[in-house]
UniProtKB/TrEMBL annotation:
GO terms of molecular function: glycerol dehydrogenase (NAD+) activity; metal ion binding
Protein name, as recorded: Glycerol dehydrogenase
Record EC number: 1.1.1.6
Residue stretches making up the Alcohol dehydrogenase iron-type/glycerol dehydrogenase GldA domain: 6-76
Organism annotation: Candidatus Lachnoclostridium stercorigallinarum
Length: 297
């Protein structure tokens, strides 16, 4: 059967599809589409106890390789992570399909990939890592380095409709490198401030319809770097994001830098699950100051 899953990856949808197919001799699940479609497919397959195969049609994230689902509420607000013991059995990527996906998905995929490096190293700071986490952290370097070296050229190839080496290398980095990091490091090293900022911004009605997950996470990288007082690195990242067409300020997202209006965003940021393992305590005032400094970076 082919199922159009809906708009959000929710526990309700996962359980609905599980109940629909439980006991019907399902051998495997194919997840095809964007990240939320594949996250739903992974959840259904896990609960049915069958293998899942992924077929990404947009290069916007590492959902095709990650052994987890990002689960939302029905109103689009982040709910929780659903972790699995193993990833998809195989991920099938068709370069031509990914090349001709809407440009915004490629842009967002690069933004999400950049974050993997900065969040992994930030959250692991000061920790003694076991072999797998240490190797995963080293792989995360390529998530940033490869976007720096190939991302701009890859974007040109997308716009001309001709997939060259830069596009292929960038797509592999978005899906495979990031997925490998998520498999190898402990769960607490996968995300940090950048993703928490993203989930905070998701509280703003309509924002996710204008900007994708990777756009908001990439902005969150700038906030994280300013929070960490690494202005030089933040400037370098900002230059790259601008070249890729990713918003680098609240103003570029059409938002007013108003402390009172952004208070729900800030509170969601500091209390989110991705903030549970970071190198020092972070307050709402610290996040707000980092946002202010990002506006004038």
């Amino acid at each position: 059967d082919a199922v159009v899953f809906g708009k959000e990856c929710t526990y309700e949808k996962i359980h609905e599809l599980r109940d629909q197919y439980e006991g019907k001799g399902i051998d495997m699940v194919f997840g095809m589409g964007g990240g939320k479609a594949m996250d739903t497919a992974k959840g259904v397959a896990w609960e049915l106890g069958v293998p899942v195969f992924t077929f990404p049609t947009v290069p916007s994230n590492c959902a095709a390789m990650a052994a987890l689902s990002v689960v939302y509420r029905q109103d689009g607000v982040f709910d929780s992570f659903y972790f699995y013991e193993r990833p998809a059995v195989h991920c099938f990527m068709n370069t031509e399909v990914l090349l001709h996906a809407p440009e915004k998905y490629f842009r967002a995929g690069m933004g999400d990939t950049i974050a993997k490096y900065f969040e992994c190293w930030f959250s692991a700071r000061g920790d003694w890592l076991d072999y797998h986490s240490a190797l995963g952290r080293e792989i995360s370097r390529l998530c940033y380095e490869r976007i720096c070296t190939c991302g701009r050229k890859a974007f040109e190839e997308v716009r001309t409709g001709e997939a060259g080496d830069a596009f292929v290398q960038t797509v592999l980095t978005i899906v495979v490198n990031t997925g490998l990091v998520s498999h190898m490091v402990e769960d607490c090293y996968n995300c940090a401030v950048a993703h928490s900022v993203c989930y905070g911004l998701n509280l703003i009605p309509g924002l996710e319809e204008k900007f994708l997950h990777g756009d908001l996470v990439a902005y969150g990288v700038l906030v994280q770097l300013m929070l960490d007082q690494d202005r030089a690195q933040a400037k370098e990242v900002k230059s790259l994001l601008r070249d890729l067409g990713i918003p680098t300020t609240l103003a570029e997202m059409g938002l007013s830098p108003d402390r009172e209006k952004l208070d729900p965003v800030i509170q969601e940021t500091v209390t989110g699950p991705d903030m549970e393992h970071i190198p020092y305590p972070v307050t709402g005032e610290m996040i707000w100051k980092a946002m202010e400094e990002t506006e004038i970076l």
